[in-house]
Structure formats: structure tokens, C-alpha cells
């Protein structure tokens, strides 16, 4: 009997006769027993930085950028610890803004703010959502070098003027972050499709960026770049762009964690954004990257709460497995992703753009050609990524509460794992090698072919 996450529970299944199953998970390390104590220690001894109590002064304004509900960052522990440090220096409550870095996701609900921060924090401090499409809420940080001139963008598809950004990435950030005397970010360091590893500067540089910046950092030239790879930060243009954006915005301090497969904190660092992030990346690589000796006919990737709430987020499991340093599934093989998708494709503007691009495409080859020719607005990059996956490997979504949306998005809905595995038998035959990755957004299979 095998098990993978599904919503807040699990989905159990057996493989049919003839299928040979292999399970891989991230390495096991002891979780931190006393997380608040570990956070306090990290804040007392930050990496390559004075403690926050020495950076802040009475009368300063401060902005803490935290992750939205789609990220499992334990902000209910991280943010109060940062607030206590600021209070100890004399920074007033009314001079602190807590900015939810939603990127182009939907705004966070009052209930989600409570879940992320706790009732006391929400009642006491100014808590706001980022506004990526509101020019008045953004500060222009200039452009950074990245040649996009070989692409012709359909300006009518954007809410901003792309004509002035033909030779660089337009950097921007929420005004509350830029105007603060002290800018801080929380986050989790884990494998990421474009940044290599998330966390560090990304909570600010993407979560609080304007639509134009998100468009270019997620555009076809960036996504097609060989350096934009899962698990890679060296020579990664996406990582370089968000690093520069965070520098120009004035990010001075981060508090980040690494989680295990059960979302327990196993490492925490605070300090200067680059140095603290790199220490956690080194830890995360040892934890998440797992060698496998072959490619597989079928790969089953688990997601679970909160990422399987919508198809936009859940589909990351398929693309993570496909865009591992070497694709873990054979060409023509199947990717099977159990996911509730109770929010359908997703309710945010970016999530809706993903769905519309997938739904309206005649087929996958024409979708790829069109997106490469015209570019796409932010959010639709997930359509581009999934089209690259679907060009090679069909994707089956199991247990989705929106099978019609799955079908319109050019993926295959299945009610049960048994149905999905039966499809695999029909397409590929009964004798199959199957890889089960219960936590496909964390565990990074590294194929080591002889």
C-alpha cells in the first residue's frame, strides 16, 4: 500500500500487478524541538549582519514582507519574533507595516491573514496585501540587463506599457516596502521552478513586485533559458534578477526556514539576505536532492495542502518532476498528480490567465508556438511551462473537484488512483516502472544515468 498527500489527508493505493514501485522522499533529519527558541537564537546570532536590534532605531519605519497562504512558511512564528525585536528597539507599532507578498495571486482573506499571523498581530498592526496592478502602490526601480529584443510582445495583453522595456527587466516593488527605513522578509527555502530555490529575496522581489517585473521574469526567454532550472541558483538569470530587485528595494534582513516533508522546521537562519539564504540552500540541497538510478514510465507526485487547492499550484508537481536536472519520467511516460483543486484553476488574476491560455489553445504545439511568438502576461507562464511538459508527457490529475477545468486545461481528470493507473496500463502496457514521490514539491530527484 502506497500513500501520497491529498488535501489535508492522504490518498492510499496499490499498484496493479506488473507495476514495480519505488518510493523516494527527502532525507530525514530531526525536526527542531523548540522552534521559537531556534528563531530567537538565529535572531541573536544573524549571518553576516548585526542583530535586528542594532539595525533598528526608535522612530524608524519598518516593513515585514511575508508569504501568502500558498506557502507553508510558519509566519505565525517568524513575524511575531521579528516584531518583538523591533519593539525592543523602540520602533512603534504604528510605524510597522506587514505586507503580504501575494505576487499575482488573489488577495488574502481575513481568515488567511489570521492563520498566517495570529489574531493578536492582525489586531495590533497594519496588515496589507500587495497590489501588483496598482501603479500608485509601486515604486519603479529601473531596469536590469536582460535582452528581450528578439521577442515581439502583444501589448494589448498587458495592463502596462511594455514598449519601454525592450532591453532589460523592469524592476519594481510595493511602495510600503521601498519607503520603510528597515525592510525585512520571511520565507521558506525549498526547490523552485525558476529561482532554483525559493526564499531569501524572492518573498519581496516577486511577492511584492509589479506586474511588469513578474511578466518579464516569468517570460518565455527567461523560462527557456538553460540556467533557469529547478535547484540551480548559479548562473540562473531569474535568481540574478530577483537578487538585483531586492538590492535596489533595500532589503536588509531576512528570517527564513527549511521544512521537512511533514512541514516541520528543520533549519532556521536570519541575517543578511544573500549570506543567510546561501546557508539554507546548502542545507536544503542535502535534504531535498535525492539520487535515482533511472527514468520511469510513470511518476506519481504528491502535493497536499495548501498547494493542491487549485490547478495552477498543483500542476507545479508535474513541472517540478519534469524540470528536474534530468526529467525523471521517460518521454511519453505519464505524470499522475492527486489534487483536490477545490478552488478550480485558482481565483487570482495570474491563475485565471493560466487557465484561459490553456483552455483557449487549439492544441499544445500551437500554444507553445503562440506563447513564444507573442509572449504572455504574468500568470500565463504556468501555461507555457505546462505546455512544455504536456508536449512530452501527459498529465493525469486524480480526485480533482473540477474535472471539467482539468480537461479544458489539456490535462486528464481521473476520479481515483485505480482509474489513473488503469489509463497508464492502457497507454503503456502492464509492465511498468513507477516512481512515487509523496512530496513532489520538495523532493528533487536527481537522475544519475550510467
Can you walk through the features of this model?
With 450 residues, the protein is α/β, with parallel strands linked by helices. It has 2 domains: 2-26 and 293-447, 2-enoyl-CoA Hydratase, Chain A, domain 1 (Alpha-Beta Complex); 35-287, LarA, N-terminal domain (Rossmann fold, 3-Layer(aba) Sandwich), CATH 3.40.50.11440. Helix content is 34%, strand content 24%. It has helices at residues 35-44, 52-55, 75-88, 110-117, 119-124, 175-179, 202-205, 211-217, 220-224, 237-249, 273-288, 311-314, 316-322, 349-360, 364-374, 381-390, 403-408, 417-428; strands spanning 2-6, 9-13, 19-23, 62-67, 96-101, 126-129, 138-145, 168-174, 182-188, 191-192, 196-197, 251-259, 265-271, 289-292, 296-301, 329-338, 395-398, 412-414, 432-437, 444-447. The protein has a 6-stranded parallel β-sheet with strand order 3-19-15-16-17-18. Strands 6-5-4-9-12-13 form a 6-stranded mixed β-sheet, with helices on both faces. Strands 1-2 form a two-stranded antiparallel sheet. β10 (191-192) and β11 (196-197) form a beta hairpin. The chain is globular and about 70 Å long.
